[in-house]
Amino acid sequence: MPDTVKDIKKRAEALRKALHKHNYQYYVLDDPEISDAEYDRMMQELIRLEADHPEIASPDSPSVRVGGAPLDKFETAEHSVPMLSLDNGFDDSDILGFDKRIRKNLSFSSRSGEGTRADDEILYTAEPKMDGVAVEIVYEEGRMLMASTRGDGIRGENITSNVKTIGSVPLVLTLEKGKIPRRLEVRGEVFISLEGFRKLNERRVSMNLSPFANPRNAAAGSLRQLDPGVTAKRPLEIFLYGVGLTDLDSESHSGTLEALKQLGLRINPLIRPGITIHEALDYYRELTGKRHDLPYDIDGMVIKVDSLEFQHQLGATSKSPRWAIAYKFKAIEETTRIMNIEVQVGRTGALTPVARLDPVNVGGVTVSRATLHNEDEIRRKDIRIGDTVMIRRAGDVIPEVVKVVTSGRTGEEEIFNMPANCPVCDTPACRDKDEAVTRCNNTNCPAQVKASIRHFASKGAFDIDGLGDKLIDQLVDKGMLSSYADIFHLDKTGLEGLERMGPKSAENLVNAVEKSRDMTFPRFLYALGIRHVGENVANLIADKFKTAEEVFSAGTEELEAIDGVGPEIAKSVRRFFELDENRETVKRILDSGVRIIYSETGKKDGYLEGKVFVLTGTLENMTRNQAKGMIEAAGGKITGSVSRNTDYLVAGKSPGSKADKARKLEIEIIDETTFTELLK
Ligand code: IVH
């Protein structure tokens, strides 16, 4: 007699439950209770049941780990809280400076306790800095809903099917006691262990495929596969290290990590919670010592202020939180000779001296150039042409000269002087009194024009396929482009006459330009190449203004009101749009049929959209984090201190001085009951 559907469903559910558990035992606890063969048998049985009875399929069945259907492309996924990056420190004094800034910001006494735990010690949590790929995973009611890459920090790619194949990522959260959070956005690093990397490359070489350069590239490449079946075969792992929006209740970062662990998520066991800044420095030395014995690559340590209340008060710049810093490991260094010093002209006209080096291998990469930053830097380090120098390469950073090996001097070395004129357009170069940078102020300088067109056509901006560096050089040199606005007037006949440009490629380019005419608002702003306006800042600005015209005429005060936009950025934006020439260029772009697309999400439909809240005192029925989560979910924002931009001050029990300030500024003060009403 055949099994009833009910029986089959029951059997499938039992298998799923057992597989989830064994998965957790194996991947998270590293303590398997059954053999691999037994696990495989159960998995095969489940896959067969689901194949025969599609009606019992489930998106969080362990069977999805073998990889689902291939995709055509990744969809975009927006992060509800931006995924920022970290500030870097390279020596102890950078880290002590970080602690000092935090003490100042939080009005603590200016020195930490040098090991004796003073009453006003700030406690940190220190963690290994994993050298992998950042991801965000969203759980709702304990089920994995979505996973995405960091992308530009605001929007990433939806890589759910791929992340589901990672054994150490639970598809369903479990908890012995307590409540599973309604929504949990967790963040962490996906990586490949050194052993996994070695085996993967061995397999690739045996199949005549090129090996991956390092574990990080292998992890990144594996996560970006459109076919999750391929990802499933890669030895990806995860460590979680933080949260985005969540109603998870915790007072400290280390508490959050502990809660994540209780939910079955994998946390790095080397994390050191609740330590002083001096203990963190000791921990750094400890990590440096064991770094090469670890089964995976780390590139430093991350120090985070442990108290979430303090984190909240400290806030973030547009790039990184003020409550965390990465203490990077010492970079790899080599010695070589400076053959010559050349001067490059950048997009903003900055003249940068660059050392041409006798090519040298630094940690597996051939280095033939190193930035010398600016004139002061050259003087400070007394760098001369012909010098033997120690150079350093750290991660993806441009190699730089650490110091001169003076014992290598012969007396033949030549002192370098910054040229008086721009090496490209011969305009006299200037240097502001309070700036280290020498600039060519001729905005029509071909070097600047070329660089700004390259930026305009680049991936994060108008993304014009086929408009590469060489072609831009030709077009500018021939006078066919004198600003990026001219791109939209290029025609096929004109293009066909150029070197290495047939009718077909000319047509392709014209089509690519045509295709780029519909442009999203943030990309448009980014493309203009305004100083200090990178992708992040462009996103922040685009979120705050309804139209481009509003940005063109925005005053510095209005710009500075945006969280993450400081005076320097505001001034730069203002200065850009004040110049007739720039306004004219923007107008020409818009007149030539470029349409700015204003995003759906920018349409502000959350009922608290744009409202700014400040909390003070103790709330009775929710934690601050929950309140924050609910405000943000409705489109509102929380800031740490009361200002003219505050819409509501939510006052709990025994409110502090914030209430006085709010009264003075005539800002609406509401109690917890009214606040709860408002959220409904
Ligand atoms: S916290 C806002 N913790 O480093 C703070 N990041 O440069 C966000 N990373 O994108 C990051 N290990 O990919 C944090 N224990 C750790 C980390 C870590 C590695 C990576 C992460 C992030 C990058 C920041």
Labels describing this entry:
680 residues, alpha+beta, Helix Hairpins, D-amino Acid Aminotransferase, Chain A, domain 1, OB fold (Dihydrolipoamide Acetyltransferase, E2P), five-stranded mixed β-sheet, 35% helix, binds 2-(butylsulfanyl)adenosine
Model description:
With 680 residues, the protein is of the alpha+beta class. The chain is built from 24 helices and 26 strands. Strands 12, 13, 14, 16, 17, 19 and 20 form a seven-stranded antiparallel sheet that branches. The chain has a five-stranded mixed sheet with strand order 2-11-10-3-9. A four-stranded antiparallel sheet has the order 5-4-7-8. A hairpin with a 4-residue loop joins β12 and β13 (350-362). The structure holds 2-(butylsulfanyl)adenosine. The site of 2-(butylsulfanyl)adenosine (IVH) has 15 residues, from β3, β8 and β11. 2-(butylsulfanyl)adenosine (IVH) binds next to β3, β8 and β11.
CATH homologous superfamily assignment of the largest domain: DNA ligase/mRNA capping enzyme
Sheet with most strands: 7 strands, antiparallel
Distance between the termini: 54 Å
Beta-strand segment tally: 26
How many helices? The count is 24
How does CATH name the architecture of the largest domain? 2-Layer Sandwich
- Category from helices, strands and their pairing: alpha+beta
Q: In CATH terms, what is the fold-level topology of the largest domain?
A: D-amino Acid Aminotransferase, Chain A, domain 1
Q: Class of the largest domain, according to the CATH hierarchy?
A: Alpha Beta
**Shape assignment:** globular
What's the mean pLDDT score? Answer: 89
Task: Supply the number of structural domains.
Answer: 6
Question: Which residues form runs of ≥5 with pLDDT under 50?
Answer: none
Strand content: 15-25%
Kindly state the percentage of residues in helix: 25-40%
Bound molecules: 2-(butylsulfanyl)adenosine
- Radius of gyration equals 28 Å
